[in-house]
Amino acid sequence: STPVHSDTSPMTLTRYMIQVAMDNTDLEHMQDMQSLMSSIQLACKKIASLVQRAGITNLTGYEDSGSINVQGEEQKKLDVLSNEVLKNALRYSGKMGVIASEEEDEPVMVDEVYSGNYVAVFDPLDGSSNIDAGIATGTIFGIFVQNTGCLASDWESKIDETELTCLYNTMQPGANLVAAGYCMYSSSVMMVLTTGHGVNGFTLDPQIGEFVLTHPQITIPSRGKIYSFNEANSPQWDPVLRDYVEKLKTGDNRAGVKYSSRYIGSLVADVHRTLLYGGVFGYPGDQKNPNGKLRLLYECAPMSFIVEQAGGIATTGKERVMDVIPDAVHQRMPLIIGSKDDVQELLDMYAGDK
Ligand code: AHG
Ligand code: MN
Ligand code: MN
Ligand code: MN
């Protein structure tokens, strides 16, 4: 049952997490999720304020050092800053054992004092190429339980035990996620979260500085009228995908509808719109980049968990994203995600059904 929100007792994210934990004492991890989410939401409020004032505080643009991250991307000042903010918030939650970030070459072991038995994977600032133009960006996070069964002997490589434990604990399939969410920094600041029991959306109320439940039990429409791809890459797409998008343009599809195109260039914003309005988002592999651009661990898997929990589909084009076991922390993975009927139509075309 979704707790009720009223003016005199706003259903804040904090209260929601307490209530869900109290109402579902059988659900393991909910007590820990409660304190984890208070750390994560604090970090996201801080990142929201950094993003909204970037132009005023000279925090737009690239890192002065010209640093290149492990992805080969030139880091924005806010990529680095938001990474520090989130790392510290998670470290001092006392629940975290290991954290992996887009902006960290290797996973980071949280020092003993504060160590807990969860693993966080995150993209501290998604869509950071949009930051200087004041266009929507976001933070994406996923939470796993730490694999205590990691034996150094399981691995051939010679890196030391700590590193092994660290690495092993981050490379889990999306199906192991116990929680996933994103915070979108746009015309409103929205936190969308799942702990495996549906998806809920909270909007930051600047008057009280709290995320308030505004979108209880989000379900994605079974079909939409919007497709969202970077069509500049379409000459390199496989012919089936080109044909599928062509059919969305002409109306020659199962819905008999001519679609519109929307592409913001921030995964968080494009997926959030797809979640609420329906339709399909894709960053497919192509001839140049067979694994596409998005990172499996902290972009594709958390987003797939959320969209599946809302009744949608998330596929690599060949298999369910959440079944893929990463073999590298920053591994890229093709992603086609959105409304059940939209994505199923593409999958059926790949299977040769008309
Ligand atoms: P990030 O800013 O975290 O590196 O992610 C950027 C990603 C994702 O947000 C977006 O969907 C995609 O890059 C856009 O890529 P293109 O600019 O190649 O379309
Ligand atoms: Mn990046
Ligand atoms: Mn990203
Ligand atoms: Mn990023």
Write up what this structure looks like:
The protein is an alpha+beta fold. Helix content is 30%, strand content 19%. The protein contains eight helices and 13 strands. The strands form two sheets. It has an eight-stranded mixed beta sheet with strand order 2-1-3-4-5-6-7-8, sandwiched between helices. Helix 5 (239-250) links the parallel strand 9 (226-228) and strand 10 (260-261). Helix 1 (13-23) packs antiparallel against helix 2 (30-52) and helix 2 (30-52) runs antiparallel to helix 3 (77-91). The protein is globular. The termini are far apart. Mean pLDDT is 91; it is low at 149-158. The structure holds 2,5-anhydro-1,6-di-O-phosphono-D-glucitol and manganese (II) ion (MN) (3 copies). 2,5-anhydro-1,6-di-O-phosphono-D-glucitol (AHG) binds at residues 73, 102, 123, 126-129, 230, 265-267, 270, 283, 293. Residues 71, 73, 102, 128 line the site of one manganese (II) ion (MN).
